[in-house]
Amino acid sequence: MIRTVLVYLINDLDGTILLGRARRGIGKGKLNGGGGKIHEGETPEQTAVREMREELSVDIDEKNLKKIAEHTFHFQNGARWHTIVYFARAWSGEPRESEEMTELQWYTTDALPYAQMWADDILWLPQVFAGNTVTAEFHFDENSDTITSYRIEGTKRA
Fold first, then answer.
1. Of 20, 34, 102, 106, whose CB count within 10 A is highest?
2. Would you give the DSSP letter of residue 54?
3. Which residues of 84-120 are buried (b: 16+ CB within 10 A; e: fewer)?
């Protein structure tokens, strides 16, 4: 099982979310937040801080990470990913493109470009924006573009 994190920057002033286009890796070409694989000896929060610095040039304090989802992804080639998803509403620095992320843009949560994102995002992100914490499991086809089955559970955040 590959363990990963995903972080979305949220601008509380106007309610927008930052997305960027992945330049490489399994999500190449898709719009997403920043994130990556958890290294040996790292906590998910430490990974989130490191990945946001590497991918978007912003510094986040671990206490400013809010866990909003936890997903398990199953791919037809046998790969399995476990991803912890966070919102970050405070950071220092201005998000910048990197070798990993390009086309950074702020989107309103009611006008996200789901057709350019992972196929699962449209199924769970609206629940998060409605105030739920989500746990989900997704099964993808061989191209990682089509969901063959899924299960989503949401609980109201305190």
1. 34
2. H
3. bbbbbeebeeebeebebbeebeeeeeeebeeeebbbb
DSSP state, 62? G
Residue 20: its H or E element: strand 16-22
Q: Is the pTM of this model over 0.90?
A: yes
| pLDDT tens digits for range 6-42 | 999 999 999 999 999 999 888 899 999 999 999 999 9
Question: Can you say how many angstroms the Cα of residue 63 is from the centroid of all Cα atoms in its chain?
Answer: 18
Domains of the chain: 2-156 (3.90.79.10)
**What's the length of the chain?**
158
